[in-house]
Every structure is written in structure tokens, then in C-alpha cells.
Design brief:
Layout (H helix, E strand, L loop, with lengths): L5 E3 L5 E3 L3 H8 L7 E6 L2 E7 L13 E9 L2 E9 L2 H16 L8
Antiparallel strand pairs: 1-2, 3-4, 4-5, 5-6
Length: 108
């Protein structure tokens, strides 16, 4: 298992960053924690760029994005995906749509 580090280039595309100092410096930029976030009735959805491959080099594509839905009781849903910003945005919308279709006790 190996840990692969990524940054977002100027176009928002994830690129492999082998230099740990550059990766650490990227984490302090505004672009690092790209977030889609929104609140609804009793829930909060967040999609972030993780910056390191959560597939740990064992998946075909690096797993670099995470969408989570938080409710008062904790985490209701979590998904991760590989790919581009556009794919992360699509995952965010899909997770939200599936979550909202759950019975009301899950989101109150």
C-alpha cells in the first residue's frame, strides 16, 4: 500500500504531487478544501477534495473526493469518488437526491 498525494491545478483538475513540501503548501491555499456545501431541514451536506488517494493506490483511479451528509445524530451518508470536480459535483447532487428520498425520521 502506498499513499499518493494530489493537488488541484489551476483548472481544478487533480494532479499527482510527489513533493511533500509542495503538497503541504497546497493545503494552506484557498483551493485546497474545495467544498460544495448546503443545509436543509435538519441536515448539512459537504463535498470536499481529500488531497490524498483514499484508494491507497489499490483502485483503478485515485479516490479524491468525499461527500458526507451530517444530521444531528451524526453522519447519515458518506460516499467517495475518483475523478474531476464535475464528477464530485454529480456525486454531491446524487447523494443529496437519495438522502432526501429517505423516510422523514432520518432527516429530522
Amino acid at each position: 500500500m502506498r499513499i499518493l498525494l494530489y493537488i488541484l491545478n489551476e483548472q481544478g483538475v487533480p494532479v499527482l504531487e510527489p513533493d511533500m513540501d509542495k503538497w503541504i503548501a497546497f493545503q494552506t491555499t484557498e483551493r485546497y478544501r474545495f467544498q460544495l456545501k448546503e443545509e436543509g431541514d435538519g441536515y448539512f451536506i459537504s463535498t470536499i477534495f481529500l488531497g490524498l488517494d483514499h484508494g491507497f493506490g489499490m483502485s483503478k483511479s485515485p479516490i479524491l473526493w468525499e461527500t458526507m451528509i451530517f444530521i444531528k445524530e451524526g453522519i447519515a451518508m458518506q460516499e467517495r469518488c475518483a475523478g474531476t470536480l464535475e464528477q464530485a459535483e454529480a456525486m454531491h447532487a446524487d447523494v443529496k437526491q437519495r438522502f432526501i428520498k429517505l423516510p422523514a425520521p432520518h432527516i429530522s
